[in-house]
Amino acid sequence: MCYVYVYSTNVATNVMTEEQKTLPFTEEQNAKRRQGGKATSGAILSAHLGGNADLFPKILSLHVPKGAKVADITWGKGVFWQQVPKGDYEVLATDISNGVDCRELPYVDASLDCVVFDPPYMEGLFRRSETHMAGSGTHAAFRKHYSNGQATDEGGPKWHGAVIDLYVKTGHEVSRILKPDGIFIVKCQDEVSANRQWLTHIEIVNAYAGMGFYARDLFVVIRTNRPVVTRLKRQVHARKNHSYFLVFQKTDGKRKSVSAPGNIKASPQTSTNGVVPSE
Question: Partner of 231 at 20 to 30 A CA spacing, among 21, 85, 87, 200?
């Protein structure tokens, strides 16, 4: 095949003639151009209109192989797992209601393939008086699912700072119990606190990057109903009707790339399920 060369400042560029553009590709060229896969409109998308239980199985299918050992450390009522077939994963369910603090987990180092974390992400649920807590009245369902309903009597950061403090401390603990290349699935939501906009998901990504977590994926969950606002005098910020699933992968902090999904192996079965035996 013939090419016309155009020279400019000693740089040669290949330019095909009009005749060459209409010539059919050879069999060898077609073989090189042929792509695998098939056309589909069923790919998993980053934005989802619906509930957590609808999206969560899709996140698992992308990032966590079946048979993996998964600790859901804020189990609550197990809403995330409602549509996940039983037996697909070895699930270890704990939360604060049964005495397991997500900041001090009862698992041995590097023993889990995946950890799921969905804490209270409203600063109004971190108050030292129950009468001042959010989640009353029309928001009772939120307190029921995302809080144990008790006041926070410990010292430490207040308001939005208390939310981030919980994510950071739990992140350090999860880094301890996850295997190398293990997956950390985190639920969060941005918020307005003290009339200031807080992009919580960005704060979490930045904090976890410093711990060696690679932000592997992000999903936006959009609620199907419109939130009702009572006693609105003047709106200053957009009302939040979306939340996030963030998917992190544990790295050693030095790698330039991380394992592909197929390289993340499920755990072999163990007699202790990764839990530290009681003394």
Answer: 200
The span from the CA of 249 to the CA of 174, in Å, is 11
Question: What would the mean pLDDT of 215-241 be, rounded to a whole number?
Answer: 87
Residue with tokens 């070895």: 90
Angle at 93 between CA 174 and CA 84, to 5 degrees: 105
Query: Cα separation of 126 and 146, whole Å?
Result: 11
Q: Confidence band (pLDDT; 50, 70, 90) for 252?
A: confident
**CA-CA distance, 47 to 199, in Å (whole number)?**
17
Rounded to whole angstroms, the Cα distance separating 67 from 41 reads 28
pLDDT at 31 (0 to 100): 61
Dihedral over Cα of 80, 86, 89, 93: its sign: positive
| Whole-angstrom distance, CA of residue 129 vs CA of residue 220 | 32
Spell out the alpha helix ranges (H) of the chain.
18-22, 27-33, 52-63, 140-146, 160-177, 200-209
pLDDT of residue 268: 53
Arithmetic mean of pLDDT over the chain? 77
Structure tokens at 130: 């129950």
SS3 32: helix
What does the block give as tokens for 55?
């999206």
State the residue for tokens 């992308």. Answer: 62
In angstroms, the CA 271 to CA 84 distance is: 24
